[in-house]
Amino acid sequence: MKRFLPMTLMLLGCFNPDFTQKPCTSDSSCPTSLGYSCVAGRCAQGGSNAVVDMAPDPRPVRVEVEVRGTGSFFMGTSATDGINDTPTYIRYVPSPYFLDEREVTVADYRACVTAQVCTAPVTGPFGTQGWVCTYGRVGKDNHPVTCVTETQSEAFCTWMGRRLPTEVEWEYAALGNTGMSGQRMVFPGTLGGNACWNTNATCLTGSYSNAKTYLGVVVAADQPGFYDLLGNVWEKTASSFCTYPAETCTTDKFSLRGGSGFDTDLRYSKATSRLGDTGPSYNPNVGFRCARNSTP
Questions:
Q1: pLDDT class of 3 with cuts at 50, 70, 90
Q2: pTM of the predicted structure, to 2 decimals
Q3: Positive or negative: CA dihedral 179, 183, 184, 185
């Protein structure tokens, strides 16, 4: 048996196990005699660990606003001067949620494309109206990204740890508990210079700094609220485009909200007005913002 001892020692000397995948909570969890220490939850040699990704987070920083309410509120309108928004009916206030302060911009979306998570939207001229998609255009980085499909919008929101808002969440953020007989406009009274409207183009997000709103009330720029819930671009939601008061239906269309800078028809200026759009569709007057659940 003695003649096998040198061979055994030789084999042990050649064996060099790799502990860089071993989880740890402190250096004592690692084989320190072999030069390992605990780095970012993994054993590492020489104070480094190849499996630890130290790259900066590629996701853009986006401001979001928490929305909270109690009881119920009126969806839609009893008037006939809107689009696809009658009759009025009661819905419960959604559970607490966050909604983006601004629409997703070209720069925001491009970060997702660069990260190879999102696909690039259609670019260039669109249709016969002379409209142009914003992605890939010089000087449009801080304009809403347009010509994105429902799937592309969802992919961006998922990447951000968020989702598209429901139609109920969108309308409640825009109007709050203003009531069936209350104003159904994002801005009480006339549009004035409060929105990117009748411009035949998109605008910088938040261009109208004096027109930030929260639950149907205009608020100061330093207060929590939303820009461009009216105008700039129509916004995609996660809700099926059903005829009121139905909440669910069989359809291939999703609801759009908020009107756009390309609109001149004042019926679209009501916060209750809705359009239907199929998932694969994309247009230069349609963008989106994201939402996520909050703690009840």
A1: low
A2: 0.80
A3: negative
